[in-house]
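ARCHIVE RECORD
Type: protein–small molecule complex
Small molecule: threonylcarbamoyladenylate
Source of inputs: curated submission
Record status: active
Notes field left blank by submitter.
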Amino acid sequence: MTGDIVRADSNAIDRAAAALLRGELVIMPTETVYGLAGDATNPNAVARIYASKGRPQFNPLISHVRGLEDALTHAVLPPAAIRLAEAFWPGALTIVARRRTNSPIAELTCAGLASVALRAPAHPVAQALISAVGRPLAAPSANRSGRLSPTLAQHAAEDLGDAVALVLDAGPCGMGVESSVVSVDDDGHVVLLRPGAIARETLEAIVGPLADPRQDAAPSSPGMLASHYAPRARLRLDAAEAREGELYLAFGDTAAPEALNLSRRGDLTEAAANLFAHLRALDAAGADCIAVAPIPRTGLGEAINDRLSRAAAPR
Ligand code: TXA
Ligand code: MG
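STRUCTURE (tokenized, with ligand):
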């Protein structure tokens, strides 16, 4: 496959939709990160997603839909899930709920689980693509499994360009970390499976305190494996400064003005948007170890620290 990077205009979106309907894959922009998209109702397309990412088939994919109305045809959404969807869709929230047995979403998309993960992305290109295909799109982040998520079309193409018919380029992703993933069970219990681009506090303003995933048994969100989002370099976190042989990733107004900085003004939204691209840049600069400044744990800082600690985990 060619996997050409093309500007995401309406002509390119039509070509991408045709490829998706043939069972091929496409790299699409979303407001969080670039996704590796395939027809969620086509098990062959979904199998290609797992294979080209090198992703284990026990780790289910998010199905992207236009909005709440579509979502209701695929999942049983309790009132708390509907309130969340009304508050945050289209946007960077993924809702995991009981899958309707008559949903056309392939079982493989959900890794055979009784639940389905749904998100209505806000990005106009993603919305246009879903509408043009007329089916939900399965789309994990467009990186090889265990690598950094892509926030630029080139980054996605480097990892997965060979696996797709087309790379739709819409510039840098605005948010830069993946969606927040919550599960809502039939009793209305809401669990934060993955901290992400919508802060815990913002979600809690709608549905009250969020439970954390149970640490026993199997991981409830199989994607939350310890070593994930890994650059080639090692990471040292909460570092006040770089030691000999390290490159520094700064945050805020620091004593290291020459270092790459996630946000000089200490803004967590800006830091989230820069996180993966800066880690990729320091990795490409040949660092053996990246020393990362402390990042506050509030708001989007929870998702940033989550991704950093996974990237720093032993492999
Ligand atoms: O922002 C995003 O969410 C991006 C863009 C492309 O939409 N997508 C993304 O997908 O990050 P992925 O596959 O990298 O992460 C999906 C997460 C994984 O942690 C997976 O385990 C979890 O959602 N997940 C999906 N279906 C699930 C289910 N039925 N039950 C529990 N967790 C599920
Ligand atoms: Mg991912």
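CURATOR ANNOTATION: The radius of gyration is 19 Å.
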